[in-house]
Amino acid sequence: MPSGTAIDSRQGNRRNLLPLSTKRQAFSPLTVFCDFDGPIVDVSDRYYQTYQLGLAEVQANYQATGITLPIHLLTKEQFWQMKQNRVPDVEIAMRSGLSGAEIDLFLRQVVQIVNQPTLLDQDYLQPGVRWALTMLHNQGARLALVTLRCQQQAIQILNSHSLLSMFSGIWGAQDQGVAYLNHADHKTQLLTEAIASFGDIAPHTAWMVGDTEADVLAGQATDIPTIALTCGIRSQTYLKKFEPTRIHSDLLSAAHYLVYQKNGSKTLPF
What is the signed CA dihedral for 48, 108, 174, 8, rounded to 10 degrees? Predict the structure, then answer.
């Protein structure tokens, strides 16, 4: 289950986020709740290698009994397009030549290895993320990470890229398997706790930014507008079904919109 404990991103200590002063409440700062996998880091290489390793393990298990499976390895483009359109892992396995018990073994293997440290090292920052976060931070926006990724993993990655100090708080899971399952109710719970911790959010000054239906549904459940990003694990066509407030290609594009919308500009700088 996800943890609702906020992490002080500048000191790494657990703390309570206290309401701001009345003077600052009148300022009504922009508050951006942002997902991690997808908007900030690209996980496509890790997920594809997990898929490859899962198939290889299934093949090795059957070859040990003298059986060679007719496995058809999907290209990364084919695999990622299926993931973006929410094709179930069972169907991906079937399209790769597996059936019956072979599929069960593949699914167990994927869940078991997807968060292995050697694979996590394949995640990398999305283009423009540093610029986007810096822009929002410099404009006085309060940034809060709300992720189903293991909380300590997110902290370590942000710290390694010198981005941790950008965030006012981190809400994440304790269970490493939660992110892959991507349950909307878990994300909603975390977002609800994050919103409550700020305590002083004025109407129409908070946004939820993410790349999956879980992010959109969590924002809708907590009555804040949502920005769905197409740079992650869901396609624009799929995300449209959930009716996010806006759809952008990446975090930098969303940051430009939020900054210029906050400042009352009617035109964007691109």
Answer: 0
Q: How far apart are CA 227 and CA 225, in angstroms?
A: 7
Burial class (CB in 10 A: 0-12, 13-18, 19+), 110: buried
Q: How do the domains of the chain map onto residue ranges?
A: 22-43+123-262, 44-120
Cβ atoms of residues 9 and 142 within 8 Å: no
| 252, 268 Cβ separation under 8 angstroms | no
Strand partners, 37: 41
65 to 56, 100, 116: CA distances (angstroms): 15, 17, 27
User: 245-269, pLDDT tens digit by residue?
Assistant: 999 999 999 999 999 887 764 444 4
Question: Do residues 148 and 218 make contact, with C-beta atoms less than 8 angstroms apart?
Answer: no
pLDDT digit string (tens) for 112-155?
999 888 899 999 999 999 999 999 999 999 999 999 988 888 99
Phi, psi of 230 (to 5 degrees): -100, 10
Q: Which two tokens stand for residue 70?
A: 């007719």
Domain 22-43+123-262 homologous superfamily, CATH = HAD superfamily/HAD-like (3.40.50.1000)
- Per-residue tokens: 205: 């000054």
